[in-house]
Specification:
Chain B: GO terms for molecular function: CoA-transferase activity. The complex is a heterodimer of chains A (about 220) and B (about 230). By secondary structure, chain A is α/β, with parallel strands linked by helices. Chain A is built from 5 helices and 13 strands. Classes of the chains: A alpha/beta (about 220), B alpha/beta (about 230). Chains A and B meet through helix 3 and helix 4 of A and helix 4, helix 5 and helix 6 of B.
Amino acid sequence: MALSREQIAQRIAKELRDGYYVNLGIGIPTLVANYIPKGMEVMFQSENGILGMGEFPTEETIDPDLINAGKQTVTVIKGAAFFSSADSFAMIRGGHVDLTVLGAFEVDSTGALASWMIPGKLVKGMGGAMDLVAGAENIIVAMSHASKTGESKILKKCSLPLTGVNCVKLVVTDLAVLRLENGKFHLLERAPGVTVEEIQKLTEAELVIPANVPEMTF
Amino acid sequence: MSGFNKVVKTYDEALAGLKDNMFLMVGGFGLCGIPENLIQKVHDLGVKGLTIASNNAGVDGFGLGILLEKKQVKKMYSSYVGENALFEKQVLSGELELELTPQGTLAEKIRAAGAGIPGFFTATGFGTQIAEGKDVKMFNGRPYILEPAFPKADFALVKAWKADKYGNLIFRKTAANFNPMIATAGKITVAEVEEIVEPGELDPNFIHVPGIYVNRLIVGKFEKRIEQRTIKK
């Protein structure tokens, strides 16, 4: 069975480490916040100017002056900090954020990622995605492995306009966990009940398959 | 006005000198921290042909969206314009020029404008269509693209929480966003705030933008419309 959005987030949460500052993109990445391992402290950065983002507010605590990068109302944890957009992107560009999790339409074996524009459809903008992929040492891409019609999104070369180059390292899809190393995707784990052959079939890029590919556990 | 007192009484005074074809920077992220009354006044004055740098373009009927309705805007520099149907329509029809700019690069182009830095190198956007036609230089084995700063804005419009009469500004929570940099980058910077106090009442340790950057100051009433009202389940 392919993973649900929640399960992709749950798998990515296993990559969190105690003391990490983490930026989560919109969509599946946002769900990662629900699966922080017990006993671990991580702090969420929101690029509109929060370090220490908390959960959504109640009707009583809602505040129009406090939103996240997806423009949703949020709260902050004790010990949070607010800052300007310039300071926020200094953090991001300067490599101070330990982990960035973001979605993508396509990734490729050169390390490029496409996430912001589909030609022919209206361009809404890249927001902070280009800054995030250029600035982060440690990026996890959360995405679906293939389109609904079975076309691979794990490619030799991205077909869509790029968000960044040389930035992809770890990819968690609904079918597999892949690590990009020396221009090749290595199959590290597969979704429960999904075979290596199925993953191979839906992967256009060259895939290195070790003798044993463990199933993900939750 | 006299001495360092920046307070003006009316929005006409706040935007005196605003003309067609000017370059404006406008603070805010989504609808959070936008100078909503100054935008309304720009709308009412009816100036046209504006170029505006602002992270977003408001929504239909609120924020910068109301300037689009009157076709007052010629060109926008923004990082994301998703929430505005009219904006999409005007871009697609060619009435409105849009230069999508990565959010961090947008912030830095504004900051640099205020700080007297004509341009800067950044890795953001290298290898993408953003980099087309831009100079590339290697630093420590990594390619960076040259991004020019914006020119100073003819009018920089910001929203702050509190100010003293000298124009020292304090922002509240994420309503700061682009406002602090934009405040530094105007030939004329106009700040609208929720409260103005006497000099000495704000702790100098906690000023976000010093008054030297601010030319005009006005108290406004704010609707603070919420774009994505999200409540804990």
